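in:
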């Protein structure tokens, strides 16, 4: 099975938060907000449809965000889990949870030193011959 991944630019990294469940257990949660809006590969224009995603890392996975900073390009790996439940009125409802489990900070593009400009060739003036240009050849009726 192939992993689900999404790549984008980090907009925000949340601080660890402690959340208490109904049963009284305390969980650690940390959020990652990523702009994964696509660009047209031919024109480079940003899509008119924004795709800003919020990933919530839970428990030990929250520490994966320790080395992630705003502006980093990251690839987030995640699972999608769906469930069915009955609401208070007895209607069947469905929910989908996106559960990130890994984040990889992509290497920043290297800044290249400016390339030296190619040497310009400047022709050296040649001495003029003592004879006319058509010396030794019969006159031509060509217009050039």
């Amino acid at each position: 099975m192939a992993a689900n991944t999404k790549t984008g630019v980090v907009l925000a990294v949340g601080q660890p938060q402690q959340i208490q469940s109904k049963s009284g257990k305390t969980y650690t949660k940390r959020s990652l907000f990523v702009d994964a809006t696509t660009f047209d590969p031919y024109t480079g224009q940003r899509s008119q449809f924004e795709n800003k995603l919020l990933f919530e890392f839970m428990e030990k996975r929250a520490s994966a965000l320790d080395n992630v900073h705003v502006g980093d390009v990251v690839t987030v790996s995640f699972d999608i889990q769906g469930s069915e439940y009955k609401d208070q009125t007895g209607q069947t409802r469905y929910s989908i949870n996106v559960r990130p489990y890994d984040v990889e900070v992509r290497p920043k593009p290297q800044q290249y030193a400016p390339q030296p400009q190619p040497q310009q060739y400047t022709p050296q003036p040649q001495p003029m011959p003592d004879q006319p240009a058509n010396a030794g050849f019969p006159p031509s009726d060509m217009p050039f």
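note: DSSP finds no helices and six strands in the chain.
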